[in-house]
Amino acid sequence: MGAGTGIFTKCLLETGVRDLVAIEPNNDMRNAGRSYLGESIDFINGSGEKPLLESKKYNLVTMASSFHWPDTNLVLKEFDRILKDDGVFAALWNLRLTERSPIESKIQIILTEKYNLKSRVSSGLSDIASNLRDILSDNGIFKSVLYVDAVEFIKRTCKKYMGAWRSVNDIQVELGAKNFAELLGGVEKIISNFPNVKVHYLTRAWIASK
After folding, report:
1. Which residues contact 152 (CB under 8 A, 6 or more apart)?
2. Residue 122 confidence (pLDDT) above 70
3. Which of 28, 88, 115, 173 is deepest in the core (most CB within 10 A)?
C-alpha cells in the first residue's frame, strides 16, 4: 500500500516474493513504478482506505514510508478485511541520519534555515511512529506487535542520490513544486564536487500479527 515508485516493492521481489500487488493512488508515481518494475507486477490505482482488493486473501500487507498519510482507523479496518486470519501488517520507515554525514548535514541546514522545515512527517520519528505500538496493539485486530530497527551505511553515486531525493514525497508536498525543484538544484550543487555521497539510514519497522 502506498507503493510510490516501487522501491520497497523491488525489495520484496528480491526476497523471493512473487504473488504481489502494488497499490498507489498517485498517477505519476504509479506510472514510474510500472516503468521501474515492468508490466509483470500489478501496479494498480487504489489507496489504503480503498484498496479495492478481495477479502481474506492476503498473507502480508506493507506500508513503507507511507502509513502516516491515510486515516489510521479506516486503513486498519481495511487491512483486517483483506488479510487472512493469520495475516501480518508491517509499517516501516527508512530515515536518513543526516547528522552523520557532512554533505547531508549541509542539506539539512538548507531545509531548516531556508525552507523552515524542521521535521519531516514521514521520517519515522513522527507522532504516529511514537504511538504506533499502542495504535496497533489496542485496536483489537492484532494479537502481537514486534518492533525492530537497524542502522545501515551506504555509499550512493550522485546520480542515485539525486534519484532518491526526487522520490521524497513528503518534502515535495510540503514545499510545493517550485520550492522542491529549487531544493533539488541546491542539493545537486552541494554534491557536484564529490564522487559519491555517504548516507546513513535508520530503518524502523512495526510488525503486527493477527
Report:
1. 200, 201, 203
2. no
3. 88
Q: CA separation (Å) from 84 to 44, 49, 87, 121?
A: 21, 18, 5, 30
Q: Which among 145, 135, 152 is positioned nearest to 205, based on CA atoms?
A: 145
| Strand pairing report for 21-23 and 83-96 | unpaired
Burial (CB count <10 Å: 0-12, 13-18, 19+), residue 121: middle
Task: Summarize pLDDT for 129-161 with one digit per residue, the tens.
Answer: 889 999 999 999 999 999 999 999 999 999 999
Is the pTM of the predicted complex or chain greater than 0.70?
Answer: yes
CATH of 47-209, one of 3.20.20.150, 3.30.1490.20, 3.40.50.150, 1.10.10.10: 3.40.50.150
